[in-house]
Amino acid sequence: MLLLVGLFLIIGGVACVTIDRSAAHFLYDNVSGPFHRFLAAPTHMAKAAHWLLGACLVTTLSWAWLRWIGEDATIRLALQCALAFIASLALGSAILHGIKLVLGRRRPRDDIEMNLHGFKLFGFNLDWNSFPSGHALTIMCVAAIATALWPQLAILWFAIALWLGLTRALLTAHYLSDVFVGAGIGLISAREVLAYLFPQLTLPWF
Known about the structure:
Elements lengths: L1 H15 L3 H11 L2 H11 L4 H21 L4 H31 L4 H7 L19 H16 L4 H17 L5 H22 L9
Helix pairs in contact: 1-9, 2-6, 3-8, 4-5, 5-7, 5-9, 7-8, 7-9, 8-9
């Protein structure tokens, strides 16, 4: 199921390319200052560095516990989840950054403020790095791992992930297509990593 949803997000994201610029201009003109400030804090909850640092810390502490204190089912589960996230992020990021370099796209604010927009194929320019969204990819990987742990809250995890991804478009840090494609890549990457490397964490409907 996650594979199909991921593909749906990617296809929907590609379709959004046709409305991206108009949507970005509308949001830029209509998102008020207070709402912009309200979004500014939670949007960083989807930043990869925070989650990666946490996962590395959990991995180190869990490994030390298992090595020096002894086997514990909860600690073993924490280690597996941290490693699954790191692997998911690594796979998704490799794909995402490859796309960024090859397709090259300026951010919405570059369009709005400097009239720089569109794709620059094979430009390999780090300034053209809008498509897809790394934040959306990261938080969708987090949602998939959280669902593996607490499947009864799956709707909540994915709703939060989608919301945090959409804050990137609301803040005109990304286009809508950037968010949906990034989310789709993250979801598929997490699903494949869980299915093939961590089957013990995989739910039947994944």
